[in-house]
Amino acid sequence: MNQIKFKKPVVLLFAIIAFLIIYSVLISFMSIECDQAIIISDGFREIPSNLMSSRNIYFLETHNTSDHFLTTRAACSIESAALMNPNTNIFVLFLSPSKYTRLKNWSQFQGILNYKNIHLKYFNTEDFTKDTVIDDWINKGLLSSSWYQVVHTSDILRYALLYKYSGIYLDLDVIVRKSLDEIEFENFACFQDDREIVNNAILKITNDDGGVLGKMLLNEVISHFDGFDWSMNGPKLLTRVLKNYCDVTDFLSTSKCGNFTILTQELCYPIPWQKWDDYFTEQDSQKVMESVENSYFVHFWNRKSEGKMLEKRSHAAFNQLASKYCPHVYATNVLI
């Protein structure tokens, strides 16, 4: 009789464990609604067809380690895109498989889980580039030779992303100030440094040209990848390809060719990288706010500014922008 009493709790315990295992497996095949933001299960190897649109906005997080979390400022960028474009799908794609499953525990993310148009998804590089011209190049592991692997992975995958799906790519240090529906051009990037460089931190490509530009970008990676130069596969590559696409030697006399438009620096990068610190100093705040007044975007140059933290009591321009364009993230974090 004592043996029977002993077995019942054990059987019950095993039944509970079995139920939890089965439940977790079932959950892994579904999209998990997290408050309102949606975490798309890694069972999805592609962007769900019902969510595909040339209006989609994409962010890429290409640190392939679980210990590198998104910063408060990156979360601010994501929230600003969702806030200013409420009817647009915002995709945040993670290269690290463990990172996106722990989002609810990240204080930086609490502010953006309220947006139903934000979709969070893990992606596998090989699956991501499948059926593109760069597929074999990626599978050979040539990207691993880069000295700046995180940056160059982001550079290359944004080209593959826009070639496959169309839409707008934004770096995680870009704040969106307006509805991007106001930009009437189907394909665009923005000048940096007086029309000499076209930066790829803000880039829209649709396939209305048959994917010609997207293929040109990917083929340029295959032909001239440089793992030793930080910007060679990013702004420099985009500038080279656009010159070929537009059949020009410089952009001094043109900012449009075919269906591609290069927006002025003032609309996208109103504060140049050489003056990145102006965003974070109180004495420059009025000047900065006047400079960004007509811009669609604010690029705060994370490579330079990542170590410059602000207390919320500061009246620096970045705090003013964050409080307006990412209010939830701003409210839930002590430092910004």
Overview of this protein structure:
The protein has 336 residues and is of the alpha/beta class. The chain has a domain at 34-268: Spore Coat Polysaccharide Biosynthesis Protein SpsA, Chain A, CATH 3.90.550. Helix content is 35%, strand content 16%. The protein has helices spanning 2-27, 72-84, 125-128, 135-139, 149-165, 212-224, 235-246, 265-268, 285-291, 302-305, 317-325, 327-331; strands spanning 32-34, 37-40, 57-61, 90-94, 118-122, 167-170, 174-176, 187-192, 197-205, 256-257, 260-263, 297-299. It has a ten-stranded mixed β-sheet, with helices on both faces. A two-stranded antiparallel ribbon has the order 7-12. A hairpin with a 4-residue loop joins strand 8 and strand 9 (197-205). The chain crosses the membrane at residues 12-32.
Compressed to H and E, one letter per element, the order equals HEEEHEEHHHEEEEHHEEHHEHHH
CATH class division of the domain at 34-268? Alpha Beta
Taking the alpha carbons of the first and last residues, their distance comes to: 64 Å
Low-confidence stretches: 1-6, 20-35
Instruction: State the share of residues found in helices, binned by percent.
Output: 25-40%
Number of strands: 12
CATH topology descriptor of the domain at 34-268: Spore Coat Polysaccharide Biosynthesis Protein SpsA, Chain A
In one word, what is the shape?
A: globular
Major pleated sheet: 10 strands, mixed
Computed over alpha carbons, the radius of gyration is 22 Å
CATH architecture type of the domain at 34-268: Alpha-Beta Complex
Class based on secondary structure composition and strand pairing? alpha/beta
Beta-strand fraction estimate: 15-25%
Q: Give the number of helices.
A: 12
**Mean of the pLDDT scores?**
85
Q: How are the strands ordered across the major sheet?
A: 1-2-5-4-3-6-9-8-11-10
Domain Alpha 1,4-glycosyltransferase: 213-332
Family: Belongs to the glycosyltransferase 32 family.
Transmembrane segments: 12-32
Pfam families: Gb3_synth (PF04572), Gly_transf_sug (PF04488)
